[in-house]
Each structure stands twice: as structure tokens, then as C-alpha cells.
Amino acid sequence: MKSSPYSPDVEKLRKWLKQKREEQGLSIRAAAAMLGRHHSIIGKIEQERKKIDILEFAEYCAVLNADPHEGLDILLNSLRSRKKI
């Protein structure tokens, strides 16, 4: 199985992360500061220029007060709808 940071399945997860960040009223820079990372990392994740590492995903969800299970459900449902799993 070949993965891509540009798959439609991952795009849904990226949109969900961005939505959660915006719901918290956080800018990319503010979220990055909370993570202790450079803002370009968050920007690249949200703009499909960087794969989402599972640890980054979990840490980002914690900063956003987002349930990582909800994000994984979005990803899994997308995969199922495209009959990838």
C-alpha cells in the first residue's frame, strides 16, 4: 500500500485539524507555540506539504482539545467509503 500526503483520505483529516484549530481561535503561530514547534510545521501539515506523524497528530489533538479518536474515525470512514479497508 502506497501512502501519500496528498490522498483524499488524509485531506479530510487535515481539514478536521484545521477546523479544530480555528474553533479554538488559534492562529497557526499560536498553535505551534503551544506545541513548541515552528509555525511552518503546522502550516505544512494543514497545506498538504508534510505527512502527519502519529505522534504529532496526538500532540496536536491535545493542544486543540480535540479527541484524536474523532480524527481517526474520519480517516477510517473515508478509507471505508473508498473501499480501501
UniProtKB/TrEMBL annotation:
UniProt xrefs under InterPro entries: Cro/C1-type_HTH (IPR001387), Lambda_DNA-bd_dom_sf (IPR010982)
Entries under Gene3D superfamilies matching the protein: lambda repressor-like DNA-binding domains (1.10.260.40)
HTH cro/C1-type domain ranges (all copies): 17-72
Gene Ontology MF terms: DNA binding
Entry superkingdom: Bacteria
A Pfam family hit: HTH_3
Protein name: Helix-turn-helix domain-containing protein
Biological classification of the source: Bacteria, Pseudomonadati, Pseudomonadota, Gammaproteobacteria, Cellvibrionales
